[in-house]
Amino acid sequence: MVVHQHHEDLITGISKQMKPVLENSGQGIYLYLDDDHKVCNKKFAVMLGYKSPKEWAATEAPLSDVIEADQDIVIKAYVEASEKMTAGAVRSKI
Q: How would you class 74 by CB atoms within 10 Å of its CB: exposed for 0-12, middle for 13-18, buried for 19 or more?
């Protein structure tokens, strides 16, 4: 499908452009286009209990394993980032 390939090309391209940030940031970072086209850094993957960014990217429902107590905070951080282009931090309630 053309859209699927276009999305794959987009996430691959932005991952390459952001490689220095993904590899060197002390923060957990993920880039999300849709459930099938996403990438994260090692810090983010480990924070969610995955062994690697590749393992996290293979999940069908990213962020579904965020603990229930933190879901509202994660949603708010996502909305702020996507609508206002602002960074956010999420601290677990437990």
A: middle
How do 30-34 and 37-40 pair as beta strands? antiparallel
User: Model's pTM, two decimal places?
Assistant: 0.70
**Averaged pLDDT, groups of 10, the chain, 94 residues long:** 80 94 91 89 88 91 66 77 73 53
Do the beta carbons of residue 39 and residue 53 sit within 8 Å? yes
Does a structural domain hold residue 68?
A: no
> For residues 43 and 26, is the Cβ–Cβ distance under 8 A?
yes
Answer for the pair 48, 58: CB distance below 8 angstroms, yes or no.
no
The verdict on residue 84 lying in a domain is no
Number of domains present in the structure of the chain: 1
What is the span of the domain harbouring residue 32? 2-62
Q: Which residues are bridge partners to 32 per DSSP?
A: 38
Burial class (CB in 10 A: 0-12, 13-18, 19+), 39: buried
